[in-house]
Amino acid sequence: MLVKHAFWRVGLFLGVLILVAGGFYFYREETKVEPGTLVQETVKRAQQARGYRYRIAAEYNVGGKKQTWSQVRGEKEAENFHIKGTILGTPVEIFQIETKTYARDPVSGKWVVLEGNDFAKQQVFWAEINPLSNFQFKTVGNPQILKTEKVGKRKCWVVEFQPEVESKILEMWWKNFTYRFWVDKRSRNLLKAWASAEHKNSPGTFLSLTVEFQDFNKKIEIKPPA
Q: Is 195 in contact with 209 (CB distance < 8 Å)?
């Protein structure tokens, strides 16, 4: 009986020791990261990438009722891009290769080719074409690391902050911005981002945006459609 009691006490002691060691390790890992610097460096690293693939979803919340704005998959290589998905319920597929645009007609399914055009500079579907345009900030406020969470198999810091946005279009219509970044602990790449804002002229109307990134700086070749 005494032996059994001794084993129980040893087991309890080891359990407490493991919890303390784990807590110390987490504390050490999190406190050596400065959240404001992490956000700024992550944004800079993403914007300097030559190419990447992404998935973006945007929705409105009007009085508690959600409405989908867009669901799009995309890929970028330098100034070239390809997006495919739905925007306002309409199928959309666009290729931009140098100054030539290929847009699929949603009714006939045929391709419309526009010569001497740079679709990206027109800021039509700007968020879907260039998702990083949503992550340009004047200031990032006071970021906080909320927790560690996995995106796929990658361990990430989850950082939340309330920035002043750089975009004049966003500033014109929206306020009370809140952002969350999922930053890969190893590569410091932005693997996922979420943003929310309230409409300035319609209290109770919110916009939320979720973007997932992958293949930063990997070789991406965007060819015109067949």
A: yes
The C-alpha atoms of residue 82 and residue 165 are separated, in whole angstroms, by 26
pTM to 2 decimals? 0.82
Q: Distances from the Cα of 118 to the Cαs of 56, 74, 81, 96, 98, in angstroms?
A: 22, 17, 11, 7, 7
- The residue ranges of every structural domain in the chain are 36-214
- As beta bridge partners, residue 159 has 145, 181
CA neighbours closer than 13 Å in the CB half-sphere of residue 75: 12
Please name the residues in contact with 196: beta carbons below 8 A apart, sequence gap of 6 or more: 177, 178, 206, 207, 208, 209
Q: Which of 58-67, 68-77, 190-199 has the lowest mean pLDDT?
A: 58-67
* Residues forming a β-bridge with 165: 137
| Token pair 């020791």 in the structure block, residue | 17
Indicate if the alpha-carbon torsion angle 151, 153, 159, 164 is positive or negative.
negative
> For residue 211, how many other CB atoms are within 10 A of its CB?
23
Do residues 97 and 115 touch, judged by C-beta distance below 8 A? no
What pLDDT digit, counting tens, does each position of 103-143 carry? 999 999 999 999 876 665 655 567 888 899 889 999 999 99
For residue 38, what pLDDT is reported?
A: 97
Distance CA 47, CA 45 (A): 6
CATH of the domain spanning 36-214: 2.50.20.20
Range 25-63 burial, b when 16+ CB lie within 10 A, else e: eeeeeeeeeebeebbeebbebbeebebbbbbbbbbeeee
